[in-house]
Amino acid sequence: MIQITMPLGFLGTVYREIRQALVDMGEMFDLLHQPAEITDAPDAKPLKVTGGAILFDKVDFAYSPERPILRNVTLDVAAGQKVALVGPSGSGKSTIGRLLFRFYEITGGAITIDGQDIRKVTQESLHEAIGVVPQDTVLFNDTIRYNIAYGRAEASQAEIEAAAKAAKIHDFVMSLPEGYDTQVGERGLKLSGGEKQRVGIARTLLKNPPILLLDEATSALDTQTERDIQESLDAMGKGRTVIVIAHRLSTIADADRIVVLEKGVIVEEGSHDALLSRGGRYAAMWAVQKAEEEAEEAASGPDAAE
Ligand code: ADP
Ligand code: MG
Questions:
Q1: How close is the Cα of 274 to the center of ligand 2, in Å?
Q2: Is the CB of 90 under 6 A from ligand 1?
Q3: pLDDT tens across 194-250, in order?
Q4: How far apart are CA 273 and CA 278, in angstroms?
Q5: pTM of the model as a whole
Q6: CA atoms within 13 A on the CB side of 227
């Protein structure tokens, strides 16, 4: 029995890893790969980022003509501001992020960065300007150094270490016998969800983009790890324009503005305090999450019933 079940169990593990790798690749392409039909305008110029102000001006969008997704979305993010997008699953939050990268063409309105229509700039310069920390950071089967420097192969060891320190992963890396030469990924050291996120943060810090897009960057982590990572993300946002798609509302209460989406339409916007006193959709979502968090803490706290 044992001789039969062991190899089968092993195959199961390999299968799960391959499947996970495919999922990770899928997510990476979701963010980094643009559909082939989108090409640079013949006279496209490099985007010139002066402060990183983003404007969605009456944007309409549909993935397929028969099903409109975003309707008349106007989103004005001043340079250096942090704006949070919240709303039920399927309301169009991630779509807004994809449109900022111009992975799809909008059907109405315009999207500009520092006054330049993103259809008139080179896609390379557009992608250069925006950093993403996705929900699941993709690790390549290579060294930690390679994984942090990915996208900036010319980075020096000093630059890599500075990014790793800011992302609070340097001490962990130095505790490994092979340090930055440690192999990670499927064949190497398995990193925890929080460690992978820190590699992702270090990678983004090294890219040093003026605009940051955080799409539920911490939702795959446990509460404590999420709080730790949140500090690193907050520090990374200083001096940049940040659009954060939030899962846990407590992480975006400090945003300059919170925008509530529902079925592709902005239904409310304002500061956390303004939205709470308004007593609308956001206030209701906040009440639900607070009750959930309190229940969670009561269940896991030191005085929890056996
Ligand atoms: P959210 O991030 O708020 O959960 P999304 O922006 O991912 O929502 O999705 C908004 C709507 O667009 C959903 O109804 C979703 O099913 C649809 N959608 C998302 N991606 C695609 C796609 N690639 N093709 C067609 N429809 C999509
Ligand atoms: Mg989403």
A1: 25
A2: yes
A3: 999 999 999 999 999 999 999 877 777 787 888 888 888 888 999 999 999 987 898
A4: 9
A5: 0.83
A6: 3
pLDDT over 90 percentage in the chain: 65
Find out whether the beta carbon of 92 lies less than 6 Å from any atom of ligand 1: yes
CA distance 271 to 256: 6
Residue nearest to atom 26 of ligand 1 (CA): 63
- Kindly report, residue by residue over 149-205, the tens digit of the pLDDT: 987 889 999 999 999 999 999 999 999 999 999 999 888 999 998 999 999 999 999
What average pLDDT does this structure show over 7-33?
49
**If you measure from the C-alpha of residue 162 to the centroid of ligand 2, how many angstroms do you get, rounded to a whole number?**
31
Q: How far is the CA of 265 from the centre of ligand 1 (A)?
A: 13
Nearest ligand to the CA of 89 is 1
CA distance 92 to 96: 6
Name the residue at shortest CA distance from atom 23 of ligand 1.
63
